[in-house]
Amino acid sequence: MGGRRAATGLICAALAALTLSSMATAQTVVKVGLISSYSGFVAQAADEAQKAVDLYMKEHGEDLPPEVKLELIRRDDTSNPESELPRN
Questions:
Q1: How far apart are CA 26 and CA 37, in angstroms?
Q2: What are the tens digits of pLDDT across the range 41-59?
Q3: pTM of whole model > 0.85?
Q4: Were 42 and a residue from 37, 65, 69, 80 both cysteine, which residue would form a disulfide, CB within 3.0 to 4.6 Å?
Q5: Dihedral angle of Cα 17, 19, 21, 27, to the nearest 10 degrees
């Protein structure tokens, strides 16, 4: 439930920043990153949070100015302990 609130909060903050900024003449792409646990034993919570973000965007996407496009970038924090991250 907390992940859903955090994701919704991120989108609301991005929308508020766009509203406060001046209107651009060219199309503006705003990228919002979502880092969550899409693998491992907690993947269900991340999947539910992603669905909540998708639903919010579907219902409120038209609230954006016409020249603004919101792009969501999803990344896995690899919470699965069986997978190792590459070491630098």
A1: 35
A2: 888 888 898 899 889 888 9
A3: no
A4: 37
A5: 100
